[in-house]
Amino acid sequence: MDRCVRKAYAKINLGLDVVRKLENGYHEVRMIMQTVGLFDVLTLEKRSAGITVSTDNGELPTDENNLIYKAAKLMFEKHGITDGVHIHLEKNIPIAAGMAGGSTDAAATFIGINELFELGDSEEDLRELGVKVGADVPYCIMGGTALAEGIGEVLTRLPAPPEAYLVVAKPDINVSTKFVYEHIDSEGVEHHPDIDGMIEALEQQNLDGIVARLENVLEAVTVKAHPVITEIKKTLNENGAMGSLMSGSGPTVFGVFASEEKAQKALEAVQEKGFAKQLFVTGFAEGGIHGK
Ligand code: ATP
């Protein structure tokens, strides 16, 4: 095999709780992760030597700062590969959005290089190496629905939610994950998301129960700096969303809908108000190592 194409799926958080701040500066979290049907496309091609990255998105680095490069380098070092690889990224996932765009590209790189060079690493092996690139990378390798604990790398598979339509809206602002985590006072969080209740609702395939528990403790921090997030949520809710939430550290907001027509109508309402330019109607997906 000289060439391999891999989809790299985005995620949303159905629930995000910060348990405490760790001594190393990281935060211990409990998050319900969910893959959605929005994806980048990576094309990996064998070359004679070196690692090179190209992309159709002018904002992204193509040097060693791209997470794709970091993932490829780790795989090359681990397996002593002396051949080369060129990886082209077609970027569709909004950048700095709270949708793990960079992490999922890294995950697809680990999976793609494993396939292309027939290295035989297990999912577990790839997840172990993946955490060196970022805390969300092991989850992106796994894909689907999962509880993420620790710094995000301790994963438990959960049942996928019942089918629903999602509107994903990324306002035209960039949010730094670092800034948001630096400004969350984990001791001062007054209301913690009902993560265990969410897990039960997933087990019972109860979409109303899932939507009733959508909550993210980072939302209050990001909303303070960017009130447009509240405006988008309001617009989605007024246009038929069962519920809505900011994903990760934001600023992307998603709404859950029972029908595609309602979702499309709500997307248009957000667009008309000029709150967001990057807007998608999508759904829950599998992603990860299994979801090509
Ligand atoms: P998370 O949900 O994990 O916080 P995010 O959606 O907030 O992720 P990303 O889109 O992953 O943020 O990227 C944030 C920064 O990482 C960007 O400013 C970008 O320069 C850098 N980066 C490096 N490689 C990539 C990549 N392949 N795709 C996107 N961003 C990348």
Describe the structure.
The protein is globular and about 55 Å long. The strands form two sheets. Strands 1, 2, 3, 4, 5, 6 and 8 form a seven-stranded mixed β-sheet that branches. The protein has helices at 67-79, 101-116, 123-130, 137-142, 177-182, 195-203, 207-212, 219-225, 228-238, 260-272, and strands spanning 3-21, 27-47, 51-55, 84-90, 145-149, 154-157, 165-170, 215-216, 243-246, 253-257, 278-283. It is an alpha+beta fold and 292 residues long. The longest helix is centred in the middle third of the chain and has 16 residues, at 101-116. The structure holds adenosine-5'-triphosphate (ATP). Residues 60-61, 65-68, 95-103, 105, 136, 177, 248-249 line the site of adenosine-5'-triphosphate.
